[in-house]
């Protein structure tokens, strides 16, 4: 009984939150991305050194006939696929939020109402999945150079895991040392240090393009911040409503049947 309701509740939340996120992205982040892509194309069209041309021709000889990688066209197609991706992302996060809320209910009963509980879980999600990784590796606009992808992925996973574990210790632990352990976990990724490119991340552009892209980078940082905040705010509100309406009654009944205290 609980599993179908969990899936349907997560789908309802995903529809709402994914739509909100797509709208905020179109308003805040998309114009900056499109503006940066114009400069990226200009850089790609710049004359290449003779050695680079030779390498490209050599690779072309081996890859002749390979189809160009598909990407959605600008406009409705791009917006539509972005909405689908946002829906899938919101669905997975809704499942996670409901799972944490369910575990809290099984341990603490109704010590917190659905809205403040969902708000705390959403705040932990924003801290773990956005704030902590972004502090070390800010969002990048198209055309920027960056440290090797594998190194950035490993560090981002470490930052997310450290922050999520710290939040779990603070929220579910009952030992006094949990606060020290949480603080150490939060500091761990930054003690190791995020991988960064040695040199100018906007090298290769004209002075005018370099200055314009530098401004876009700053704007993109704040745009992605608002996108993340709106996502987790909508996630907290939607999950609180769905949890109280569809999931909590089933959980309470299940706890009673199992002889667990819920008050």
Any overview of this molecule?
There is one protein chain. The protein has seven helices and no strands. With 263 residues, the protein is mainly α. The protein has one domain. The radius of gyration is 23 Å and the shape is globular.
Quick tags:
mainly alpha, 263 residues, 0% strand
Number of domains: 1
Classify the helix fraction into a percent range. over 70%
If you average the pLDDT, what whole number results? Answer: 88
Q: Beta-strand percentage?
A: under 5%
Tell me the structural class.
Answer: mainly alpha
Taking all Cα atoms into account, the compactness measure Rg is: 23 Å
How many separate helices?
7
The sequence of SSEs as H and E is: HHHHHHH
Distance between the termini: 22 Å
Shape: globular
Poorly predicted regions: 46-66
How many strands in all?
Answer: 0
Sheet of most strands: none
Topology:
Elements lengths: L1 H43 L5 H13 L13 H33 L5 H23 L12 H24 L5 H15 L14 H51 L6
Question: How would you concisely characterize the structure shown here?
Answer:
The protein is mainly α. 77% of the residues lie in helices and 0% in strands.
């Amino acid at each position: 009984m609980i599993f179908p309701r969990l899936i349907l509740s997560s789908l309802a939340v995903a529809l709402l939150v994914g739509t909100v996120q797509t709208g905020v992205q179109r308003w805040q982040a998309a114009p900056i991305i499109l503006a940066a892509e114009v400069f990226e194309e200009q850089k790609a069209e710049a004359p290449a050194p003779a050695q680079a041309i030779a390498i490209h021709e050599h690779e072309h000889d081996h890859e002749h006939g390979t189809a160009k990688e598909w990407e959605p066209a600008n406009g409705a197609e791009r917006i539509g696929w972005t909405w689908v991706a946002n829906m899938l992302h919101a669905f997975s996060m809704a499942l996670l939020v409901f799972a944490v809320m369910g575990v809290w209910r099984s341990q603490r009963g109704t010590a917190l109402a659905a809205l403040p509980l969902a708000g705390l879980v959403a705040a932990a999600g924003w801290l773990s999945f956005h704030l902590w990784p972004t502090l070390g590796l800010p969002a990048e606009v198209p055309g920027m150079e960056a440290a090797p992808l594998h190194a950035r992925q490993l560090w981002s996973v470490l930052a997310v895991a450290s922050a999520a574990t710290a939040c779990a210790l603070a929220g579910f632990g009952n030992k006094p040392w949990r606060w020290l352990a949480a603080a150490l976990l939060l500091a761990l990724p930054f003690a190791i240090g995020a991988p960064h490119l040695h040199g100018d991340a906007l090298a290769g552009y004209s002075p005018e393009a370099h200055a314009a892209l530098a401004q876009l980078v700053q704007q993109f940082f704040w745009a992605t911040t608002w996108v993340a905040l709106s996502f987790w705010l909508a996630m907290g509100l939607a999950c609180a409503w769905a949890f109280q309406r569809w999931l909590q009654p089933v959980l309470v009944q299940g706890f009673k049947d199992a002889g667990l205290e819920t008050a």
